[in-house]
């Protein structure tokens, strides 16, 4: 499964990236995130791995983020793995002529095991909705607005 989302952030590129490239800021815009721990490397650098623990009430989930490629402030490629799911995100950041930032994100999901393959097949829009929700939440956080 693949999809692309784009969002306009009302901040210059440099400020947008400074807010995004912060381990401490993750909990401020990622709903459900209860713990973010670097387990190898340095946060945000190629090869770095971070354990992300989420609590969505009845559903708890742990992801491992691996930075595959970074060319910040313009590009960040990362993978996210959890039981039965591999997600790779290719993020691009572009400055606009009027001092704003365009964030484009390509997401690719691969599912393993019958259960997760069925989830991906039956509920593809839920993955897209979650990705867009986090992009909108980051925009609100970065611009100093309450989370939508």
Can you give a write-up of this model?
With 148 residues, this protein is of the alpha+beta class. Helices cover 27% and strands 44% of the residues. The protein has a seven-stranded antiparallel β-sheet with strand order 1-7-6-5-4-3-2. A hairpin with an 8-residue loop joins β2 and β3. The mean pLDDT is 91.
Give the tags:
148 residues; alpha+beta; 7 strands; seven-stranded antiparallel beta sheet; 44% strand
Structural class: alpha+beta
What's the N-to-C terminus distance? Answer: 26 Å
Strand content: 35-45%
Give Rg in angstroms: 15 Å
**Fraction in helix:** 25-40%
SSE layout and pairing:
Elements: E1 2-9, H1 13-20, H2 26-29, E2 33-40, E3 49-55, E4 60-71, E5 75-82, E6 85-95, E7 101-111, H3 114-122, H4 124-142
Antiparallel strand pairs: 1-7, 2-3, 3-4, 4-5, 5-6, 6-7
Structure summarized in a few sentences:
The chain is an alpha+beta fold and 148 residues long.
């Amino acid at each position: 499964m693949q999809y692309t989302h784009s969002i306009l952030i009302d901040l210059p590129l440099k400020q947008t990236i400074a807010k995004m490239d912060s381990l401490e800021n993750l909990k401020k815009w990622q709903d459900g995130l209860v713990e973010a721990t670097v387990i190898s490397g340095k946060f945000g650098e190629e090869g770095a791995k971070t354990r992300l623990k989420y609590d969505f009430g009845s559903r708890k989930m742990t992801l491992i983020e691996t930075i595959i490629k970074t060319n910040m402030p313009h590009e960040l490629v990362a993978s996210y793995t959890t039981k039965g799911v591999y997600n790779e995100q290719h993020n691009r950041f572009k400055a606009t002529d009027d001092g704003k930032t365009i964030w484009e994100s390509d997401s690719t999901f691969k599912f393993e095991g019958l259960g997760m393959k069925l989830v991906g097949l039956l509920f593809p829009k839920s993955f897209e909705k979650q990705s867009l929700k986090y992009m909108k939440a980051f925009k609100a956080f970065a611009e100093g607005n309450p989370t939508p």
